[in-house]
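Query structure, 102 tokens:
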């Protein structure tokens, strides 16, 4: 993926947490590497896991240009989140976020 970012120079990368070859946290590792090698590239990290540990790991070095989105909420929100990441904004959520008092 890093070579594709070098070649294509995208504004935003949308990736899953679990990717080949190990299906563990390759997407999270890519996000961390991109923060250092391509700080201007936003990252939207998709997950099927409502686990705060992944969102914290994504944001541990700052939230600018980063979004963490549960797959079950992607429908209708992808364009908004990609736009936010492109502009350097941050977004995180979990499955219970709408049910919590604000």
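Result returned for the query:
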């Amino acid at each position: 993926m890093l070579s594709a970012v070098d070649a294509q120079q995208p504004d935003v990368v949308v990736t899953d947490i679990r990717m080949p070859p190990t299906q563990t946290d390759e997407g999270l590792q890519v996000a961390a590497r991109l923060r250092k090698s391509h700080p201007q590239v936003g990252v939207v990290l998709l997950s099927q896991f409502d686990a705060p540990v992944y969102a914290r790991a994504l944001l541990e070095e700052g939230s600018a240009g980063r979004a963490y989105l549960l797959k079950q909420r992607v429908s209708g929100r992808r364009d908004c989140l990609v736009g936010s990441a492109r502009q350097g904004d941050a977004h995180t959520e979990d499955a219970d976020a709408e049910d919590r008092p604000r």
